[in-house]
Amino acid sequence: MKSTNYRSSETNFWKIENGEIICLEYGTKTIAETSQYTPLGSYTSFRTYDRLGVLRLSQHLDRLEKTAQLAGYDIDLDKKALKEVLADLLATSPAGEKRIRITIDLEKVIGEIYIAMEGLHVPEPEKYEQGIVCQTAAAHRDNPKAKLSNFLSRAENIREQEKEAFDEILMVSPDGDLLEGLSSNFFGIIGDTVYTAEEGVLSGTTRDFILHLAEELQIPVVFKPVKKDEIAALDEAFISSTSRAILPIRSIDDIPMKKTVPGPVTKKLMEKFKAELSSGIESLLDAGKHANCLKSGTTLMIDSGVGGISVLALAHQRLPKENFSFYADAAFAPYGDKTPQEIQDRLHAILKEYADQPVKAILLACNTATSAAASVLRQELEIPVIGMEPALKPAVLNSEGQIVVMATALTIREEKFQKLLAQYGAGRDIVPLPCPGLMELVEKDPEGTETEAFLRKALAPYEDTMASLVLGCTHYVFLRPLLQRMYPQVLLFDGNDGVVRHLEEILRERNALGGKGCISMSSSLKDLKMRANYHEKCTKMFDFCINMYHDHDLIE
């Protein structure tokens, strides 16, 4: 199975076909939405812990094979390779815990694997403190020991038919047995004894873990289903699943539990689950290329949009063995019209998302963010914080005549630029030129007619006088090819070369150079379809930059 050198995993749906991982671009936002594009087959679902940990992952993968065998197919799952793929997808996905579903095709191309992923959504804390509401419905699995995906559509139909408000539906057999939830296992408690069905239910991995904990706590367990007409006799009850862990039940069919929720037995199991969870976690940290990238450290680059991609492309070319994580704060772009405090707040929020990763340096690939927050972050953090600055110094030293500095209004206002101007501007004709709206045009099309019209209007007063042009925003670096065609006599300067050289020096001084050559891209966009489209844009801009640097001999 080949693991692609992902730049990021901004889609939430993949297929492994003939050993190749293929992104399935259906615009899906949730795991549920991927079901319509997934063949019927054996499936398992689980959540992550600490990004790359899964509770009893091997048991999940064993169940995939066992379910296929029960359905009449002998599938030899390459578990090592599958773990490597999972590690890479997780390591290159946006920060945060995930819920994952793996399906083995038993309908069309037997044995092909589908992987769907979404951000983890767990019940509100109040649900664990006050319990959930359950309803019952006549239903059962055709093959209770096999986790087959044809049950998913049936379960959804049952949910849609239920008119009362509920958190989970408990299936009742023709004999009146409470079997399990549509997406959970069920446990009833009378006195100090736990009752749970053994036959007619899917033995979940989380259920097995809970039964192990009950044995350690010497809590008696009887493998016998609670009858529907025995609900009123229940002192306590709870459901379990990979995403919800142990979730206490407040009422079933409007019949309340006899004891305060969560009851003493349930509470004891919940506390034990939390305490012993780490013992059951299998880590993917040692599997997969990109997962290993997390171990070898990464340089985190942050920008409000795709502008920092121009820095990323140059850094990757200069330092091909380095790992880079690029974060585009697209949901809060542009930074140019934000206050310094707003930008500082955003950067603090972003850094929290990377708190569990070994970041060895932070590069603010944005002149505006550098002006607003670099000095603050340097005081707060122990790792290096590297910032951009308009290439005014090289323009002054390497050109004569008028220098026009294109930048955001905030960059021009801030103290950092004013100091540069005072230091290098004496006796020179330097024109600061704020360009509101240009960033958005660059992201739309750096060589488009709207962009060209904007530039002609903005630079019209200086067409006959400017000798050099400083691109004081990382977004503006994408304009190099267009500007060179428009003004071939004008020298262009930007800060990318200097900041990449500075990064290299800093990492060398700290003996931190080297990695796996991994690149990941994330954004603050919440909508998965928007995020996938934005990732595609970032990838195109990355390739655009690589070609631009080569075409204009900007890479040594």
Model description:
With 556 residues, this protein is an alpha/beta fold. The chain folds into 4 domains: 107 residues, D-amino Acid Aminotransferase, Chain A, domain 1, CATH 3.30.470; 159 residues, Alpha-Beta Barrel (D-amino Acid Aminotransferase, Chain A, domain 2); 153 residues, Rossmann fold (3-Layer(aba) Sandwich); 104 residues, Rossmann fold, CATH 3.40.50.1860. It is built from 19 helices and 26 strands. The strands form 5 sheets. Strands 7-8-9-10-14-15 form a 6-stranded mixed β-barrel. Strands 2-1-6-5-3 form a 5-stranded antiparallel sheet, covered by helices on one side. α6 crosses α7 and α10 crosses α11. The longest helix has 24 residues. It starts with 12 loop residues before the first strand and ends in a 5-residue tail after the last helix.
Brief synopsis:
With 556 residues, the protein is an alpha/beta fold. It is built from 19 helices and 26 strands.
Q: Mean pLDDT, nearest integer?
A: 90
Number of strands: 26
Question: How many helix segments?
Answer: 19
Largest sheet entry = 6 strands, mixed, barrel
CATH architecture of the largest domain: Alpha-Beta Barrel
Terminal Cα span: 35 Å
Radius of gyration: 29 Å
Low-pLDDT stretches are 1-10
CATH 4th-level superfamily of the largest domain: D-amino Acid Aminotransferase, subunit A, domain 2
CATH class of the largest domain: Alpha Beta
List descriptors.
single chain, 556 residues, alpha/beta, D-amino Acid Aminotransferase, Chain A, domain 1, D-amino Acid Aminotransferase, Chain A, domain 2, Rossmann fold, 4 domains, six-stranded mixed β-barrel, five-stranded antiparallel beta sheet, 19 helices, 38% helix, 23% strand, elongated, disordered N terminus
